[in-house]
Design brief:
Elements (H helix, E strand, L loop, with lengths): L25 H55 L2 H12 L40 H12 L2
Length: about 150
């Protein structure tokens, strides 16, 4: 037989005191209600502030882009003030020549004029990727087509 074991005392469970237990009082409810009221009241003005701030940022970016475009156009305008540049553009774009000069147009395998190796200046219109024939080529083609 075994000897009886001395009985160990059971640990006592402590009841929480009134001070450590959270209480839902009228004051706590009033503070929570005021906080909720402020959140609801301030949500709309804050959203308006954020949207206007984004609008201002977009306007500032647009203004910077326009200022860069104005600077580019002013630089191009300065180029057009040079008579040598105007003469070169007339030769390249309109195929103008001086009296006594001979105009040669180099054609590719399809009979279209070759594009210059590098552009003389930024084009006034965006390039479409295809070479546009000169006005005289278009005129001659229309006369030729009218005779058919």
């Amino acid at each position: 037989m075994t000897a009886p074991t001395p009985r160990q005392p059971m640990p006592r469970l402590r009841r929480p005191s009134r001070l450590s237990r959270p209480r839902l009082t009228g004051r706590t409810m009033a503070v929570a209600a005021m906080a909720l009221f402020l959140v609801v009241i301030l949500a709309s003005p804050f959203q308006t502030y954020l949207s206007r701030r984004a609008s201002v940022a977009g306007s500032e970016k647009q203004q910077r882009d326009l200022a860069a475009r104005v600077a580019k156009l002013r630089a191009e305008n300065d180029l057009w003030q040079d008579p040598a540049y105007v003469e070169r553009q007339a030769r390249v774009r309109l195929q103008y020549i001086r009296p006594g000069d001979t105009l040669y147009t180099v054609l590719d395998a399809h009979g279209q004029p070759l594009r210059p190796a590098e552009p003389a200046a930024p084009p006034a219109k965006p390039a479409t990727g295809d070479h546009q024939p000169g006005w005289n080529t278009v005129l001659w083609a229309s006369v030729h087509d009218a005779g058919k």
